[in-house]
């Protein structure tokens, strides 16, 4: 009898645990996130249309510059396009996270994005250094870090977290759910890759100048590049930002408890360890490159024509 009662209590305990687990919020699966993304894109398209247009025109201008083969023009336009691309990504995030900003005007999105550029670049630099440090340890740590720190920019825009606080918050939201987030990231990345292949293949088929002899060196015509720019600016970039925004919001729902001081300290130590390793690797790489140049440049110049030696001779002393 005692044994039966013990087994009954154990079954009741297991059933209670199952019920508690069912009550806990869970991350929606990847197709559900995709449905949320499509729904948000449709309902909010006119809120982000201005940003899509700016990004498209910027990319198209770069394609036109590249077709001229004028180096100075290409460099200037490429730098301009990079600046506009960064501002546009931030403007997309502001539009989705703060709809009240769009009500004022489309330019208000860029006004708010400009104020986020410095903390955004700081986050990008720190993540880049951490990934370099992780890549040194046989790549896998870099892959792990890329998921843990993936939502730092969302914590910046949505929660106004700056510096390491943004990275710590991103890590904390994902902690214990790394595989779930990784799978949803892979799903969306694979979908974008396949759809982009289809679009590029259609552009390729419509290029009448392609022959069997030129297929190996194929370059899309300007019109094809413009179509690809439109696909990226109006579909891929906004859809990516919306998809991961919904994933971020669901992570906040699943894990609403903020990290305590011990957790913050632990995450900060992990992040800074990889950042310091990345800085060391970067400086070692620069030192090696400098030594290699100083060692082999004189030999190269001695073997070069006399004109090159005359030009560079003052810099060898």
Describe the protein in words.
- The protein is an all-alpha fold and 317 residues long.
- It has helices at 2-23, 30-68, 71-97, 99-104, 106-136, 140-148, 152-159, 164-174, 178-205, 222-254, 261-303, 306-312.
- It has a domain at 30-42 and 116-316.
- The radius of gyration is 26 Å and the shape is globular.
- It starts with a helix and ends in a 5-residue tail after the last helix.
Order of helices and strands: HHHHHHHHHHHH
**Sheet/helix structural class:** mainly alpha
Low-confidence stretches: 15-22, 306-317
Radius of gyration: 26 Å
Strand tally is: 0
- What's the main sheet like? none
Number of helices: 12
Mean pLDDT: 84
Distance linking N and C termini: 97 Å
Strand content: under 5%
> What would the principal axes of the Cα set say about the shape?
globular
Bin the helical content: over 70%
Draw up the topology in text.
Elements: H1 2-23, H2 30-68, H3 71-97, H4 99-104, H5 106-136, H6 140-148, H7 152-159, H8 164-174, H9 178-205, H10 222-254, H11 261-303, H12 306-312
Helix pairs in contact: 2-3, 2-10, 3-5, 3-10, 5-6, 5-7, 5-11, 7-8, 8-11, 9-10
